[in-house]
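Next comes this protein.

***
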Amino acid sequence: MEALKVWSLTASPLRQLLRLSSSSTAIYGRRSHHSSLMLRCASAASSSSSNAATAETPKPAGRNRRAASSSNSTSDREAIRSIRLKKVEELRGQGVEPYAYKWEKSHSANQLQEIYKHLANGEELNDESDRVSIAGRVVARRAFGKLAFLTLRDDSGTIQLYCEKERLSDDQFEQLKAFIDIGDILGASGSMKRTEKGELSICVSSFSILTKSLLPLPDKYHGLTDIDKRYRQRYVDMIANPEVADVFRKRAKIVSEIRKTVESSGYLEVETPVLQGAAGGAEARPFVTYHNSLGRDLYLRIATELHLKRMLVFEVVVEPKLVQPTFVLDYPIEISPLAKPHRGNAGLTERFELFICGREMANAFSELTDPVDQRRRLEEQVRQHNANRAAAAAAETPEGKAKKDDDDDDESYEVTLDEDFLTALEYGMPPASGMGLGIDRLVMLLTNSASIRDVIAFPVLKVQQ
């Protein structure tokens, strides 16, 4: 029988591709630092949009205007955040939820630019078939009396929103002027028009605030230029520098094409262990960590070669056996810190889990996008953990300590808030939902395997005595 052909996507995919032309049945790279990443990029805002003004930013007078104009100074950021938090409260007071659950869109900005490129200056389409719906981040805004222009950016490009007071109902025009800021994520519907100046626009008949941004975007003239900050806050980097998001789109496409090429040649992709019992990778300095429950040191992988070679003696057998699934719905907020509140039942979240044969297979929920609510929930988790930790320390005795050392529920470790994650939410996250699928457990089900170790090629085990 021919040996199983395997491969692992590493940091050097081109080297792996070149090996396809050889007679070897295994494909590998010398240095592997991480597995593949499939990324769906979020909206990226242009830092060079048309002139944008916002009433929330104080305008210094005189010769010091340029030096004091940056909206990203600490004092300005906090002042703007405070103003926007008040807007969130006012919107909710008016019965408007500033962190929406969903929005149905008909087109992307780039699709509209292509479909209606034939429109002449001053031409407007009023047919029902030409009514469109779009969603994106506001990257520029201008208001003149009863007329306002917003530039909306999604992950494909930009489109202008043409907002007239007479076209909007229920005082939406006043709401737009009072509550919409640069950085907010909007959904808008209306008809298509090209202005007298040649700008393709959506004549807005209705709009909805999908996410209220609490923090200002980087200064539009200077952008986000600090290299270290760009790497640490990539979410801001992709908003301020659209070309960055394009790089990640290309990277995802490259990874996809490599996979197709390798799989079409008869290779099977193998997930080699990230942590392994022995340091590999020749002279490379290993990263060492400690596995508490196994009571042993583990090393971060460097090269996948050795594990891929081991795979050359295995044989794949799949015997699917499906059974009736069970969905558990609407979990309490206390055990669902990242899920949106339930729209119909206070104290619950919009979440479900899928169980098959008593095993959890999938976990899914509407993603929480309200940064204030998210911070409150995480702070409560930290508080509870620290309280349990303090209680355990106070009750500790010499006899109890020996037992505690072997206890998997040891709470001696420290828990802190992920401030960078919370900062990312304050820039505004679009309505989203997510699902995590347990691949290992799914394979166990389909192969009728009794242990998870049966479906992992190289499980981590305790050291033999």
